[in-house]
Amino acid sequence: MDFLKDMIQELKEQNLYIELPVLGTEQKNRVVLNGKDVIMMCSNNYLGFANHPRLRNAAKAAIDKWGFGTGAVRQIAGTMEIHIRLEEMLAEYKRTEAALVFVAGIAANRGTIQAIMGEEDAIISDELNHGSIIDGVRLTKSARKIYPHMDMDGLKKALLETKDARRRLIVTDGVFSMDGDIAPLDRIVELAEKHDAMVMVDDAHGDGVLGKDGRGIIDHFGLEGKVDIDMGTLSKAFGCLGGYIAGRLELREYLINSARSFIFTTAQPPAVAAATMEALRMIQDEPQHLRNLWDNTRYFKKAMGGMGFDIGRSQTPITPVMAGESKTAMELSRQLFHEGLFAKPIVFPLVAKDKARVRIIVTAQHTRKDLDDAISIFERVGKSMKLI
Q: Which of 214, 262, 275, 318 measures 20 to 30 Å from 15, CA to CA?
């Protein structure tokens, strides 16, 4: 397999080669990473739940009662009562008839799209949708239409061009992970209803962040009952692991029998299910976590914009600090790390060649001192690199 050396070299030449950063501490606001003390500014741990005592205790209690592993796929012998309780709790939280948990968000997207869309159907997708959606679309034989990012005229055109398909599915991210902007889901649903199409939203970065009690983009727009497939993850704001699909009972039943990424994967450890249930209780019992997240987000964005950084059009805690060329973004990330702040560069082809950035995610766990220190680091590095 000597060809792998050449392929690795190609990745390096394209600025795509990644060496895994290694944490020496739990996931929190300040960590030891590659042996250095840094402010963590690129974790998806939005609410600070990943290391919260309530989740730790729930997981420990579940291990004592249920053991650690499940020993089987869900269809055979891996479904425990705790999995059913989690899915019932998710359905109640998302205000849908039912929910089904997958081992990961990518499994939920891939399995669902592949299961429900066939050769006679058409899928209409935003051009900046997450890679897991793209993978799901590629696994089907459906016709495909890609509309320009959040362009409702482009979506309407795609709907008209696919009017003869048996079934049509519009699929979009809720919050777009590179830019932090929010899909116009209200307008998407309006067009879907007019043209008799289904809607699927990937709410990975909206769960726990948008809407009342963090119920997500559907609640944010007041569209309860109008979105056919609500996909979310349990690994970001909820601090755990897994993905899920929420919707009608028939959707759950069909996916249990047809979604290959559900059928052929071992069930979640019960400790993960228990911790997720505790996270769902916490976000509703303790609103201060969501409030802190948005207070911190507004504080950081205001300071960064005030210094003259280009922070794009983000409407969420995801804050891109635009650098332009890939090498500039990589150097910005390197200097930030040297000064004590960790944030990864996002470069071509993940984004356009002139749209490279360092992506910041503010969390509820950051203290005001964390944010002030981060702002000071950005100011020093930004001036030295002539970005501000």
A: 318
pLDDT at 74: 95
The mean per-residue pLDDT over the stretch 12-25 comes to 87
Look at the block and give the residue holding tokens 């003390």.
37
Q: Which domains does the chain have, with CATH numbers?
A: 14-43+287-384 (3.90.1150.10), 53-285 (3.40.640.10)
What predicted TM-score, i.e. pTM, was given to this entire model? Answer: 0.94
**Are 262 and 271 in contact, with CB atoms under 8 Å apart?**
no
Catalytic residue among 52, 145, 236, 301: 236
Nearest to 329 by CA among 356, 298, 296: 356
Which of 83, 205, 301, 366 is catalytic? The answer is 205
Q: CA 249, CA 246: separation in Å to the nearest integer?
A: 9
Catalytic-labelled residue, pool 43, 177, 314, 326:
177
236 is catalytic: yes
If one compares 89 and 351, the residue with the highest pLDDT of the two is: 89
For tokens 């960790």, what's the residue?
342
SS3 assignment, position 250 = helix
E-strand spans in the chain? Answer: 30-33, 36-40, 98-102, 122-126, 143-147, 168-173, 198-202, 229-233, 243-247, 318-324, 341-342, 345-346, 356-361
Q: How far is CA 26 from CA 3, 54, 133, 240, 242, in A?
A: 37, 15, 30, 13, 19
For this structure, is 205 an active site residue?
yes
Q: What is the DSSP string of 128-184?
A: T--HHHHHHHHTS--EEEEEPTT-HHHHHHHHHHTTTSS-EEEEEESB-TTT--B--
How large is the angle between the packed helices 288-307 and 270-285, nearest 10 degrees? 80
Strand 229-233 and strand 198-202: the pairing is parallel
Looking at residues 142-153, what average pLDDT do you find?
97
Question: For residue 282, what pLDDT is reported?
Answer: 97
- Who has greater pLDDT, 14 or 255? 255
Half-sphere exposure of 191 (CA within 13 A, CB side): 23
pLDDT tens-digit readout, 321-367: 999 998 899 999 999 999 999 999 998 877 888 899 999 999 999 99
